[in-house]
C-alpha cells in the first residue's frame, strides 16, 4: 500500500493493518521528512489517545492529516504506533 498526498508518496508498506476502513502503516514506513508533530490530540473510546502529524510536501501543508496511537487499549494492540491518514491523503495498492 502507498499513502499519497500532493502527488508524492509519503508512506509505503506491504504490512498495513485495516481498522474501521483505515490502513495503519508501520511507523518506520513513513517518509519522515514530510511529517511534523502536531499539538492536536483526540480520544477514541476503544483505541486510546491519538496523536497527529501535519504533512508538508512542496511547501503545501495538510494539517493533522495523519494520526497514530503511541499507547493503545488492549483491544487495539495491532495498531500501536502505526500511522493512518485522512484529509485528502490517498491510500492505494502498490
Topology:
Blueprint: E1 2-5, E2 8-12, E3 17-19, E4 22-26, E5 35-44, E6 48-57, E7 60-68, E8 82-85, E9 90-92
Antiparallel strand pairs: 1-2, 1-9, 3-4, 4-8, 5-6, 6-7, 7-8
What are the salient characteristics of this protein?
single chain; 94 residues; mainly beta; Metal Binding Protein, Guanine Nucleotide Exchange Factor, Chain A; six-stranded antiparallel beta sheet; three-stranded antiparallel beta sheet; 0% helix; 56% strand; globular
What is the H level of CATH, i.e. the homologous superfamily? Domain of unknown function (DUF427)
**SS-derived structural category:** mainly beta
Rg (CA only): 12 Å
Strand content: over 45%
Top-tier CATH class: Mainly Beta
* Whole-number tally of structural domains: 1
Unreliable segments of 5+ consecutive residues: none
What overall form do the CA principal axes indicate?
A: globular
What is the strand tally? 9
Series of secondary-structure elements, N-terminal to C-terminal: EEEEEEEEE
Return the CATH topology: Metal Binding Protein, Guanine Nucleotide Exchange Factor, Chain A
Task: List the total number of helices.
Answer: 0
The overall pLDDT average reads 97
Biggest sheet, in brief?
6 strands, antiparallel
How would you describe this structure to a colleague?
- The protein has 94 residues and is mainly beta.
- The protein has a single domain, classed as Metal Binding Protein, Guanine Nucleotide Exchange Factor, Chain A, CATH 2.170.150.40.
- The strands form 2 sheets. It has a 6-stranded antiparallel beta sheet with strand order 3-4-8-7-6-5, with no helix packed on it. It has a 3-stranded antiparallel beta sheet with strand order 2-1-9, with no helix packed on it.
- It starts with a strand and ends with a strand.
- InterPro entries: DUF427, DUF427_sf.
- It comes from Dokdonia ponticola.
Amino acid at each position: 500500500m502507498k499513502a499519497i498526498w500532493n502527488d508524492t508518496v509519503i508512506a509505503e508498506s506491504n504490512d498495513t493493518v485495516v481498522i474501521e476502513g483505515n490502513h495503519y502503516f508501520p511507523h518506520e514506513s513513513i517518509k519522515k521528512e514530510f511529517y511534523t508533530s502536531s499539538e492536536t490530540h483526540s480520544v477514541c473510546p476503544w483505541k486510546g489517545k491519538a496523536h497527529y502529524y501535519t504533512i508538508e510536501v512542496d511547501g503545501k501543508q495538510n494539517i493533522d492529516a495523519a494520526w497514530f496511537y503511541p499507547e493503545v487499549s488492549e483491544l487495539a494492540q495491532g495498531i500501536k504506533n502505526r500511522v493512518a491518514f485522512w484529509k485528502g491523503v490517498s491510500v492505494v495498492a502498490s
